[in-house]
Amino acid sequence: MFEDELRAQLAQARKDLAEARADGDLDGVQASQGRISGLIRLAITHGITLPHTPEEERGEA
After folding, report:
1. pTM of the model
2. What residues have CB less than 8 Å from 60, skipping those under 6 apart?
3. How far apart are CA 20 and CA 24, in angstroms?
4. Dist CA 47 CA 32 (whole Å)
5. What distance in Å separates the CA atoms of residue 37 and residue 49, rounded to the nearest whole number?
């Protein structure tokens, strides 16, 4: 259940990032990048593997 929630939140954060980029919302881009990175780190801490890029892990997606 926890893994499913992380996956859902990561999918939403990626969607939010795409929307922020499309809108030219730099604050939204930065916030979404941080959210993605945080979710990936949380997953790693709990031994959950989520597909991600190195850029996403660094908060640079």
Report:
1. 0.89
2. 33
3. 6
4. 23
5. 13
**37 touches 56 (CB < 8 A):** yes
Structure tokens at 6: 């992380």
DSSP calls for 40-61: HHHHHHTT------HHHHHT--
Element at 25 (helix H, strand E): none
Q: Residue 22's pLDDT is what?
A: 98
Handedness of CA 33, 31, 44, 48 (dihedral sign): negative
- The residue type at 60: E
- Which residues make Cβ contacts (< 8 Å) with residue 13, sequence separation at least 6? 32, 35, 36, 39
pLDDT digit string (tens) for 4-58? 999 999 999 999 999 999 999 999 999 999 999 999 999 999 999 988 888 888 8
Tokens of 39: 């979710």
